[in-house]
Give the backbone structure.
Amino acid sequence: MDKVMRMSSEKGVVIFSKSSCCLSYAVQVLFQDLGVSPKIHEIDKDPECREIEKALMRLGCSKPVPAVFIGGKLVGSTNEVMSMHLSSSLVPLVKPYLC
Amino acid sequence: MNTTSTHFVPQRRFETYEPLNQIGMWEESFKNNGGLYTPGSIIIPTNEKTDSLSEDTSHGAEGTPHKFDQEASTSRHPDKIQRRLAQNREAARKSRLRKKAYVQQLETSRLKLIHLEQELDRARQQGFYVGNGVESSALGFSDNMSSGIVAFEMEYGHWVEEQNRQICELRTVLHGHVSDIELRSLVENAMKHYFQLFRMKSTAAKIDVFYVMSGMWKTSAERFFLWIGGFRPSELLKVLLPHFDPLTDQQLLDVCNLKQSCQQAEDALSQGMEKLQHTLAESVAAGRLGEGSYTPQMTCAMERLEALVSFVNQVRKKA
């Protein structure tokens, strides 16, 4: 859990994904389109993959990946990110982290 | 002798035995005479007996015409008579057997038909969709999975009817003048209706992802515009925008923003789809089919689609 919290604060926008997960990829692409370069953690490459997954689920995600943290706070999974984007609330959130 | 042979034969398979039987009959008639061929003495009694037999067995219809023949020419061509009679007997037997076989065939076909109809009904309830059948069987899905698909199709049919009704209602309302509140409630209902559709698609996607993705339940025209199980909401926006005038500047701005964000989201999802297809193809090539992994992803994609279209509808609401 601590590791997750630490990792999620490493950068403005942090995405936990898996190399096999295509929705994570979609989320990454979306952020790139917005002009943000998020920090991507591929947890399946991490030896502590299981713990990270459990921690993410405990934080409230129904599925562990993709998990998006903006400014150290959990935004959610694909659903939440897309909904926010469509309601135009995502862009102001990532504005401080634009490259 | 001859009569007994005629008795035996009906119980056996005729087609093969008949020629043998005929030969057998002739042989017996020869034997009876001890090798001497005296047709006259034999024919008459046997004829009478065979006549009665043929009458019994062929319901009299075939027996009577022969009597005339045989009485007229008994004295002159007894062997021809007997031959003709024998042939007639055989023909009668043949036709009886053919009739029997045909009737049996009909019976079995009828039973088969009833059985098939029952199966079809049962399968309909259980959800065996013929068009989807090849796919399902190819992938080895059980019947339980297809039942949801048929259920979905039926539900979709109802949904479309309800949708048409709502559209008509909206049309009539727009021609007249309705209060904003009523309009709003109508729009709310329409949106709820759409959410219902999304829920249906979601459940169906959980059951058979390919079915939903290929949009098999839609008309062929709709399928032309297919994108991840539905159409692109951004396209819908493009279509709707001209109809939305007069829009206030703010509304216009909102719509444009929505269009842009919609397109971005769609692009991201499309790329995700590409990656998914790519990885799937790779897994298939490598010989493993990670089915379990992508199905939940597809349901997520479906939910995504829901959210996308819901925001399109929110634009409608704002307008």
